[in-house]
């Protein structure tokens, strides 16, 4: 038997703002609300379900997205257009794009400080 990730919950202080931010950067759509969740569907049938809980501080999580090489530059351009800095390293000390594993990658923060990453090649073989 195999197991596949189906969805995960992303805590946000404003679920609409956070879901729309990520959908904009990745070139995706925000789906209709499902109960208290606002889903963003990824290409592999996984959804990120944004859950608003403004009373509790958001604990930063890391989310990495494998994206097509031909769309990477569009995503970087979207980050630049909305004024979001991006970095070559997860610690956000080196501005720009990395070239790890023969691909390209960049890290950026979402509105609640989640460390988002876009990569064009997986880190494992």
Structure description:
The chain is an alpha/beta fold and 125 residues long. The strands form 2 sheets. It has a 3-stranded mixed sheet, with helices on one face. Strands 4-6-5 form a 3-stranded mixed sheet. It is globular, with a radius of gyration of 14 Å. The two termini are 22 Å apart. 23% of the residues are buried. The model has no long low-confidence stretch (mean pLDDT 95).
* Shape estimate: globular
- The helicity comes to 10-25%
Q: What is the strand arrangement across the widest sheet?
A: 1-3-2
Give helix and strand order, one letter per element, not per position. Answer: EHEEEHEE
Structural class designation: alpha/beta
Low-confidence stretches: none
The amount of beta strand, in percent, is 25-35%
Tally of DSSP β-strands: 6
First-last Cα distance: 22 Å
Number of helices: 2
In short:
The chain contains 2 helices and 6 strands. The chain has 125 residues and is α/β, with parallel strands linked by helices. The protein is globular.
Task: Give the SSE layout.
Elements: E1 7-12, H1 15-26, E2 37-41, E3 47-52, E4 62-66, H2 69-81, E5 105-109, E6 115-119
Parallel strand pairs: 1-3, 4-6
Antiparallel strand pairs: 2-3, 5-6
Keywords:
single chain; 125 residues; alpha/beta; 3-stranded mixed beta sheet; 20% helix; 26% strand; globular
């Amino acid at each position: 038997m195999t197991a596949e990730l189906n969805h995960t919950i992303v805590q946000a202080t404003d679920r609409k703002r956070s879901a729309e931010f990520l959908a904009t950067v990745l070139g995706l759509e925000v789906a209709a609300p499902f109960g208290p969740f606002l889903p963003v569907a990824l290409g592999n049938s996984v959804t990120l379900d944004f859950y608003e809980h403004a009373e509790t501080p958001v604990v930063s999580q890391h989310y990495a997205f494998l994206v097509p090489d031909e769309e990477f530059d569009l995503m970087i351009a979207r980050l630049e257009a909305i004024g979001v800095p991006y970095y070559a390293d997860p610690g956000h000390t080196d501005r720009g794009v990395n070239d790890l594993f023969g691909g390209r990658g960049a890290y950026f923060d979402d509105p609640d400080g989640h460390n988002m990453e876009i990569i064009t090649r997986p880190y494992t073989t």
